[in-house]
Amino acid sequence: MMSTGVQAGEAPSWLSEVVAPLGASSAGTKARAALDLKADEDRVDTEHIFGFSMGSDIGKPGEIELEIENVGRFGKRFGSYTGIGVLSQVKFVLTDNFRVAPGVSFASTRTDGVPGMIDNRRTALAGASMEFRYKLLDRDVMPFGLTLHAAPAWNRVDELTGLDIQTYGSEFAALMDKELIRDTLFATVNLWFSAGASRELTNEWCRDSELAVNGALSYKVGPDLIVGVEARYLRAYDGLGLDRFVGDAVYLGPTFSMHLAHNVGLSGTWSTQVAGRASHDHQHLDLDDFERHQAMLRFNYLF
Fold first, then answer.
1. How far is the C-alpha of 303 from the C-alpha of 232, rounded, in Å?
2. Rounded mean pLDDT of 169-176?
3. Local structure of residue 233 (DSSP, 8 states)
4. What mean pLDDT is predicted for residues 257-271?
């Protein structure tokens, strides 16, 4: 009997030539998908790598994140002063470009012998806020990233003095960042403006505003650790529209950001006032409107 040249269980030669490329293509697709996933996991989220300053990243659509930010303020020219503010937020990334984050704040203040301030020790629920962020420019496709920030807030306790107060205000910011060296060196510049009206115990209203310019550099030293340095220039004013200059301060300090787990982050900074002056006082540093030291420790948990 004439042999067919094809044994049982063998595929015809023409079919084997077709199947091999298909299999290779499938394997190649999986490999590329794995590489894309690895690259996505390794990508640095710049939002919290600069200390008080912020990067332009806001997260991916559908993400929900818990953030607890602790800000400490320490030291006046005379007496003893410690102020701790805790802001707890839940962030909801609604689209590629838009995020909202409701939050509540707590304040703990200890003041003893500080001129112009009432001695006080108090810890209380301070107020509530709603943060909105819109990414205007994506740094992956544009020369730099740009995100606009707005956060109206209401407070029932003054975080600086610990006294009862009714405050209505908001802060606005333009957050810009850029990768100077791919996945290694990052830079940011922030412009911040805040204004508010407060009714004190005397039922009199006072209005104030503040302008800040921040700049920072951060360097990735390992897969889970980023370190850097941050400089901030703050100006305080009476009036909602930067009406009358009150004082200014320059802060400088180191920053860090690290991953404790793939969905848990810790970041912070300790900055010291290195220059400044109050409008009514010619002494070095403005320790009436600002503190000698400001620190921040931030915890993030991604669900």
1. 32
2. 98
3. E
4. 96
